[in-house]
Amino acid sequence: MASQVELPSQHPSLFRLFTKESLTKIERRIAEEAAAKEAAKELQEETGEEREESDDEKRRPDPALEQGKPLPTKLGEFPPELFGKPIEDIDEFYDDKMTFVVVARDKVIYRFSATSGFFCLSPFNPIRRAAIYVLTHPFFMMLVMIVILVNCVFMASNQDVPHSELIFTIIYTFEGSTKMLSRGFIFHTFSYLRDAWNWLDFVVVVLAYITMFVELGNLAALRTFRVLRALKTVAVVPGLKTIVGALMEAVRRLRDVGILTVFILSIFALTGLQIYQGTLKQKCVHDPPPGLNLTLDEIKEHNENETNWFYLKGAPKLCGMADDAGQCPPNHTCISVGPNPNYDYTSFDNFAWAFLCSFRLMTQDYWENLYQIVSDQRPLTSLFPLIAELTRDK
């Protein structure tokens, strides 16, 4: 206890143990702030003037002191005796917030709610203190990472190791329980389920127990959710959260670019729909033997018989009705019959397939084959894929 009393005097600027006096100061600041806001609101109602935003309301969290970030070196040397212990929040933004921080031995910042978890675990409860120490220890994160990697190896192998799922589920349950005991469940800021990545952990554990103990018939669909365990690495490593968050923000900022891309592709899809709709089914079909008086059903059956189609390089030869289109050999007639080329995937019969063909041109996915196909139909309009390619290059 003597060391706890001396520590604040040794490090009076920033690094002070979080005590009951610290909690009382925060509650006092919150009450003063609420009273000041109430007084300002009453004054505004009396005078009718717009209240200006105070300096405290303009404050924002320091990005360098966010949860999961390493402790900045500009703050000086962190006292080794405070590693893994709750200290007063080092970000001025949280001076009037019910929070405290813990600096791990690898100098990563963890921020917790100073409210009672599960309505009974105060920040000074020995069980919660132990859970916080375990959660912030680098060995805990390393252990969970190793378990996740081993679990991925087991899922990739075809061998069913007895009791392996039960063992992994118990370990993940211990991990989740440690986070819940140290952070609280959901009701306060920085609690367990207030972090979206912890939703994934929670769902993985719940589904694991459902597949083990609840009889639901065919559980193959639920077992496929086990692959989500590989994403638990993002929730375990604080640095990965920052990287993934930055990637998601970059994708969000590319929204306008995506809208413009879809708009341009839609223009080319509509153009291709107007030009080539139904034309890619035109094939060279062998004429029926002369002198036969065939009915309409017999003619249709003859035309749909793939053995009567003319093949070129292993595929039905496409043709066109125009004079400059691909012509059929003697004793063959150009008829629209059968599926589109490439197993009916290359098609302009509706907007969706036309959009897919435009996307192929943009990504250069075997686009020369598409160019050759439309050239057999209407050579004068075969510039369509070339224009799309040139637009993509620009």
TrEMBL record:
Stretches of Acidic residues bias are at 45-55
Say which domain of life the source belongs to. Eukaryota
Q: What is this protein called?
A: Ion transport domain-containing protein
**Upper taxonomic classification of the species?**
Eukaryota, Metazoa, Spiralia, Lophotrochozoa, Annelida
Q: Can you name the source organism?
A: Ridgeia piscesae (Tubeworm)
Cellular-component GO terms for this entry: voltage-gated sodium channel complex
Question: GO molecular function, one example?
Answer: voltage-gated sodium channel activity
Which residues are listed as membrane-spanning?
130-154, 199-222, 257-276
Q: Where is the composition biased (Basic and acidic residues)?
A: 34-44
Extract the ranges annotated as region (Disordered).
34-73
